[in-house]
UniProtKB/TrEMBL annotation:
This is DNA-binding response regulator. It comes from Streptomyces hygroscopicus. Residues 3-119 form the Response regulatory domain. Keywords: DNA-binding, Phosphoprotein, Transcription, Transcription regulation. The lineage of its organism: Bacteria, Bacillati, Actinomycetota, Actinomycetes, Kitasatosporales. Residues 149-214 form the HTH luxR-type domain. GO terms for molecular function: DNA binding. InterPro entries: CheY-like_superfamily (IPR011006), NreC/VraR/RcsB-like_REC (IPR058245), Sig_transdc_resp-reg_C-effctor (IPR016032), Sig_transdc_resp-reg_receiver (IPR001789), Tscrpt_reg_LuxR_C (IPR000792), WalR-like (IPR039420). CDD domains: LuxR_C_like, REC_NarL-like.
Length: 219
């Protein structure tokens, strides 16, 4: 059973999400919060696997709540809710360790699938939407970020860098195994070493680092 904490300041949105998720036999909503300030206590009390986090809330916003939550050992995965066109802070949430984001008009079946995916340890990102989002907020300091990112990636071995770059292009482990002619367990081991060596939370952060380094294009 996947335990979910709903965080949204709109009671109607929370009610709709609870009703929708109630139809999934493997998902249980264990608690709700109307503000990010409530998240730490509810996570401690209910130990959810996934936090479905709104961004815009009146006291503590979802970005701050995500940053604080993911800095703690054993934190649940965070799936951010956004309206995209107005919420340019979501990339910062991904950098803080959120496992991905959903648009608020995402079809119900896709939200259910996304929660299962995140609970299994995989990110939920639409490559096209992610690219546009990154472009929105990647303006100032781009050269500095590229230099810093390349320095960090230089800490990896050659094969690890190849795997990291493939992650940055949105490839799954199975796709990476086929492209690099590796066994699937070997790819998983490389991904784990990349996360450990670079002190990252998840594949999303690998992808963002590769993007910052300018290595996310195919070819």
């Amino acid at each position: 059973m996947i335990h979910v904490l709903l965080v949204d300041d709109d009671a109607i949105v929370r009610a709709g999400l609870r009703l929708m998720l109630g139809g999934a036999p493997d998902i249980e909503v264990v608690a709700e919060a109307a503000d990010g300030a409530e998240v730490p206590a509810l996570v401690a009390a209910h130990r959810p696997d996934v936090v479905l986090m709104d961004i815009r809330m009146p006291v503590v916003d979802g970005l701050t709540a995500t940053t604080e939550l993911r800095a703690r050992p054993g934190a649940p995965e965070v799936l951010v809710l956004t309206t995209f066109h107005t919420d340019t802070h979501v990339l910062r949430a991904l950098r803080a360790g959120a496992a991905g984001f959903l648009l608020k008009d995402t079809p119900p079946r896709d939200i259910v699938t996304a929660i299962r995916t995140v609970a299994a340890g995989d990110p939920v990102l639409s490559p096209a939407v992610t690219r546009r989002l990154i472009e929105q907020v990647a303006g100032g300091g781009r050269e500095d970020r590229a230099t810093a990112a390349r320095s960090r990636l230089a800490l990896l071995g050659e094969r690890e860098r190849e795997v990291a770059r493939a992650v940055g292009r949105g490839r799954s482990n199975a796709e990476i195994a086929r492209e690099l002619h590796l066994a699937l367990p070997t790819v998983k081991a490389h991904v784990s070493r990349v996360l450990t060596r670079l002190n990252l939370n998840n594949r999303v952060q690998i992808a963002l680092l590769v993007h910052d380094a300018g290595l996310s294009d195919d070819g």
